[in-house]
Amino acid sequence: MKFTKSFKHFFSVVSMMLIAVLLSSCMMGTTKTVTLWTDQSDFAVYAEIFNTKQKKYKIETYYFDNLTESLAKTKKFPDIVVGTGLKNSETRRLFKSLDYFFDELLLKQTSFYTNLLRLGNIDGKQYLLPVSFNIPAVIFSKENSGLITKPFYLTLDEIQSLGKSFNQQTKEGLYTRMGFSPRWNDEFLFIVTRLFNVSYRESNPLAWDAAALERAMNYVYKWSIEINGSPELEDDFAFKYLYNPPAVIATSGKTLFAYMSSDDLFALSEDRLSTLDFRWVGQGNSIPIMEGSPFLGIYKKSTSKEAIDAFIQWFYREDNQKEILQQSKDLRVLDHSFGIANGFSALRTVTEQIFPTFYPILLGHTPPADLLVPPGILPKNWEILKVRVILPYLHDASRTDKRSGQVTLEKRLADWLKNNPQ
Length: 422
Hints:
Blueprint: H1 13-24, E1 32-38, H2 43-53, E2 57-63, H3 67-73, E3 80-83, H4 89-92, H5 99-103, H6 114-119, E4 121-122, E5 125-126, E6 129-130, E7 132-133, E8 136-141, E9 153-155, H7 156-166, E10 168-169, E11 175-177, H8 186-195, E12 201-202, E13 206-207, H9 210-228, H10 231-241, H11 246-250, E14 258-261, H12 262-265, H13 270-273, E15 276-282, E16 287-288, E17 295-298, H14 305-315, H15 318-330, E18 344-345, H16 348-358, E19 372-373, H17 382-397, H18 409-419
Parallel strand pairs: 1-2, 1-3, 9-15, 16-19
Antiparallel strand pairs: 3-17, 4-5, 6-17, 7-18, 8-14, 8-15, 10-11, 12-13
């Protein structure tokens, strides 16, 4: 097991000792070694579990903070790649078609979440297999569970209505309780734009539906004015009361909802989770799958087909993913990382039937498969564009309905690209 950089997720000393035991138990003999590059540190554990289960093949794992950049610069490619950002036009050309896995019945298409699997299908061929995914949630204190009757997800209108009922003001008009504001979290503002079908997608470098973006920002501003008084009152309330982490805020009695992504939510301690309830965030008949879902691909010139196929078949078996979860729990990996590769498994039965045994809070609340909507294919520098350009724009644009005098998102993006040439 090799790494070029440090783990994303901190492993405890106990975990590292147990991994060493696993390594030392490997059977000696001639093995076929294949390389796996990843930005998902948990795959180091998965690969070593595979290595201990048989002596014919060995997966040698390398970790990269910026996987797509490393792939763009290398002259010696790995056999298997598992990571985020693999679907962009520059990176996906490195991979071979995986249709033979389904044609030869090595894997079943019906085992996967349909919409997630479709995202790895390019021009009618399956080049990438989904590994895991995350979705947005609003969390709230179990003491307030009686206020929320829907079992799976809440729409923006429902969150707004429930928040309004929770609001409480003094005679002077100051808020002592405020149910929720989308503006308290820039990531939630981004989720709002996804729910309004802004449709961010790869272009030169990025395209979106400008009219849908305007509608989303108007919706947020109207929420601030009609439900919470004004953006200024929301900001004042946040400054006074919302300085703790979301899980603490949700149980403070000061607000009804707080926002968390599923990977952050289920990485909380069991004690903290025991005080919380949650619902997914949706609109109409859709719940957005968050960007950054890892996918698996095979380098198109790899010659280690037998070993590669053996690992992929092993990884996508339901019983093996159950063992992966159990080993991860025993190694304390689940203290810092959620589920499979820090997300729900791309295998539907694993998420729906096995995950609740490890995360009891999921009972009755597993993601509704038919409602999950993946993001579009995004440019390779998506994360930096989102953080440096999109989120700051949403933060500013949500404060007013008079955006005609503001710098547009197009202008912000153009200026940023000018100052940060590729």
